[in-house]
Amino acid sequence: MLSVDSDLRLNSRPGLPGLLFWQKLVPAFVFGLLSIKWFIPSLSALSVYIFLLICFRLEKGTVVLLILLFGFGNWYGNYALPEPAGPMPDWMTAREKVQVYGVVKSVRAVPGSRLKIMLQDVWCNSTQGVTPLRGYLNWSWDHPPERPVPGQRVQFTARVKPTIGFRNSGVWDYTFYNRTKNVFYRAYSQGPLKSGELKPYNPDFLQRLRISLRKHILQNAPPAQGGAVFPALLTGDRFFLSKETVELIRRAGVSHILALSGLHVGFVVALGFMFSWMAGLFVPGVYLRISRVKMGVVLAVPLVLFYLWLGQFTPSLLRAACMFGFWGLLLLFDRGRILLDGLFLAVVLILSFSPLSVFDLGFQLSVLAVAGIGLFFPFFKPLLPAGKSLVGRGVGCLLSVLFISLSANITILPVLIWNFGTVSPNLLFNLLFVPFLGFFLVPVCGIGGLAVSYICPWAAEKLFAAGGLCFEWLLSLIRVSLEKGMLPEYAVYRPLWEGLLIYYLITGMIVLVLSRNFIRLKYFVLPVLVLLTVRVYPGMAEKNVRMDLLDTGQSQCVVITGPQGSRTVVDGGGSFGDFDMGRAVVGPWLCSGRMPKIANVIMTHGDRDHAGGLAFLLEKFQVGHFYSNGDIPAGNTGKRFLNAFAQNKISPQVLESGAEIELEPELVLQVIHPDAEFEGSRNDRSLYLKLMWKGVPLLSISGDVDRKGIRAVVKSGVDLKSQLFILPHHGSAGSYSPQLYREVDPDLALAACGLLNRFNFVSKKVRNELERQDIPLLTTAASGMITVCWDSPGQMRLMP
Q1: What's the rounded Cα separation, in Å, for the pair 641 and 417?
Q2: Euclidean distance between CA atoms 584 and 421, whole angstroms
Q3: CA-to-CA distance for 131 and 672, rounded, in angstroms?
Q4: How much is the CA Rg of the chain, to the nearest whole Å?
Q5: Distance between CA atoms of 556 and 3, rounded to whole angstroms?
Q6: CB–CB of 556/781 below 8 Å?
Q7: Global pTM value
Q8: H or E element: which one contains 184?
């Protein structure tokens, strides 16, 4: 919102310094676009923005124009937003495998030998006939024996599902995000296509050239992770990178090196300026006709266009190229304020043609990072050494990288936290990776090696090998740092929309303080106080008991919040692949507007679909107590449990029937099952818990108990009545028990299960019996996250 131009300090006339009139209008349009998803937060942001502009004595009539632009942005965003796909066909609901036909729109290679292929013009042949699908289908293909190219037709057999993600309030809305991309369906294949094929296709010249370039990279790069980084950096192809390598890079805080974006375009632009500098060495008189800077821009243009094509015109590269284009034009026309004006021009152009890009995390981070550099780097610049010696310039270069990273991170920090719920304050590896990539790995080993490979393969192999060896050395350095505990990672408070606005208001205040423009600080105080009141006051009135059954797919996670605000997590969801439910879903949800603190973690049993997500919570959250039936998971998940117990000084406690856990005064969890002598399967030994508030039974949680465990529960002689009942084992046929349903006699039954799950939970016989006993049923598969509140014992209400 503010600029650090000199007029910020010198202009005594009130006004919004540093922004041209048309630039002051852009945020209103952006807020209007965002309002199609977050109307109240966007309207509040607009109100705060208008208030500040009025305080800065904005031009007359501008407020009306801002409101109109907000309305136009809302209309334009809704106009561009694709309509929902509609109800699922019967064959999709029945999980029928169908023949899928489509045309490849794009191919993206991701770590772990997987292709993400976007198909258009898709239709499916099922037992019910031919069904055309709206929008695009996202096809994941693991370990493909061949690679399709855009424009190629494909046919394969698979189960097609809608692209519906985990539907939990306050976290990443995967369903809406895919809708903005016009993606409504997904499918999965592994290995050679079954009953399918890639249709014969004759690639055009540019496609053949890209295939040839990729082939030369793979032929000359070493067959290790140091070699796998070259296709990732040059073409965006991360197919050969291992998930361990990606995780190491993430923990080092340099994930941006793998995302083809502004950083990589900057490397390419730097090549253009290097060629300009070299031209001056050989032909000094050339600068009499064109300045070195303008020549650098001209020479960088074809390089950027080539890199844009090589990277397959990904949205992030297109955005970066657009920004470079405007900055280059402003330089060629000798305009000032290059960074700020170029950013605004790029934003207007991108959102004019692709308004839903405003919901793309990459777009948000790009804009905020550039804005942060423009705002804060000028304040760091005086700290750079003034010496012109080689050592001084080297130190200045490293400090510049650090200060640019700090400037960018100041503005992107809350967005990163909101989306991921964790912070890795490990900026120092940027001092190694950014110069290494910018001066050596990309231009010399990557682009240089690729160019030389057509002339002298032996020299290309040496270049790629040298770069790969250095990259492997950096990876080993990260690995050692991680083992030594030198790369901390923290789960942190995830701000709600009020918190985001407060953060950026405080950021504006910091800019004013650094600019010694103290007189305008008072304008920011009132909106900060109002937003704090909006955030804090409603929470003071909440004195109820709340149960949240999170949508964690085919797994289970229950969160109980007491009237005093304590939280108890019973199971943490999980999956049977590499997906970390705790990191991606449960942890961010728990941190939404709350500190990463849990009074009690209870694990009903050690199956991955109940225990997997708990490992992250035990590692990163402040956990008061950990309870289980003594069944600790096996494998890597179990190792993470044991390490977390040791590092965080958590003493596991084993529960047996008859035990009670006091969550808060008069709020108690009773343990009904198992007793010490019970013998049965892992599922049958699941904890069976009953929540009591002031002596009134509210909720029963039954883990995965099956027939033998259920018989023990029914024969225990304990009163099992509860208002709310979470069905055992996700509503499986193996846990079917009419007697248990009668004993519990709930007002509402819940089941945690995945949409179109392969087990067909909740089973038909369980549904029929619940209906016969007149017990309503809700599932996370159909409803997403389910929230129930008790304002007083016995008064249960289902939250919308």
Answers
A1: 24
A2: 8
A3: 50
A4: 29
A5: 48
A6: no
A7: 0.92
A8: strand 183-190
